[in-house]
Amino acid sequence: MPRGVHNKKTVLMVNGHYPPAKCGMGDYTKRLADEVRATGAYDVDVLTAAYPGIAKIRTERGVRLLRIPRRWDAAEYGKLREHLRGRYDVLHIQYHDGDYPSLELLRRLPRLMKDDGRVGSVMISMAGFKDSDRSLEKLFAESDLVNVTTDEDGARIRRITGIAESKLRTIYDGPNMLPMNERYIHTPRTQVGAKKKPARLLHFGFLSPQKGFEEIVEALRIVSDSGVEFSLDVIGSDHEARETDYFKRIKTLIKKKGMGERITFHGFIGGAKMNRIFSQADLAIFPFRDGISGKRSSLWSVMSFGVPCISTESAMVPAGIRHGENILLTPAREPRVLASAVIAAVSDDALRARLSRGALEVVRRQYSWERIRTEVVDAYEAMLHGRL
Q: May I ask the CATH architecture of the domain 9-174+368-384?
């Protein structure tokens, strides 16, 4: 449908951890709202659990933001409905474990809005959940379509709920950061091996135990002992109060291993500074303890700059990912193997160049926002026109 068309369809996106820059799901919703609006066929509102400064409604770049400030229980719906549009074509709930103050309203929202004549179709996007959380089954039952961002989540939902295949779709996550322009696309440097220029290493994303940062520190101690010179830039930090102690443990481990002068924590940065660090990195390290998966927006972001990457193996490697072709994969929780991969990569110009080219190709083919937009809008249209 062309831009400027009248009678646009409307979408209410629900996100428990908006705005952007506070979590990956916030970045995802912001980008998805912009992409859906860019089709010219949809207007988008976002219902958020926590957005500083919003009392009721605020509009940012054409997206209306609504906030439920307190309990997220069913009683809040009466207050919320005053600020909703008359009716939405699609209710798109985006769920990530732990992002909502309470699941009571979330579980009941599809039925409340349907009974109230406020919504036509319901889609829920899942990005991680616990098998033990049986309360989500109500959400699945009330949704017309369930979207997962990983093959693992799809398999788990099939096992737990017996959901019909026609009701389940897999749409992988995409980068939450993109190059500002082509000048920041990575050009592999040469001479970063032992006794040559120091290798510039990178880690990007929020620090949490599942990201395997202890393995990075342990591995880099081994790399240092091998005689390879390097520095590590860390962009991002711990993003929830419960992880503050973890960050302190990381700092203690870094000091114990004598890595303090080699590792720089930049915190939350963006713009030209972040782009420069990404574009100058020789190698990025992502030793996820649960392995590589389709929801790794931090990994897709770095690969979208063409930075060669190391990550960890998983039972279900995402589509298009090939060890040695566009990434290096090592076993999880194995710092010695990780160290060997780092040494091999920083000492091999041809390998890094191949990984760089492969990273750009696979992200553009499999994990681009153009593809996500197309697949999400196709899902909306399938629900609205009864093609499920």
A: 3-Layer(aba) Sandwich (3.40)
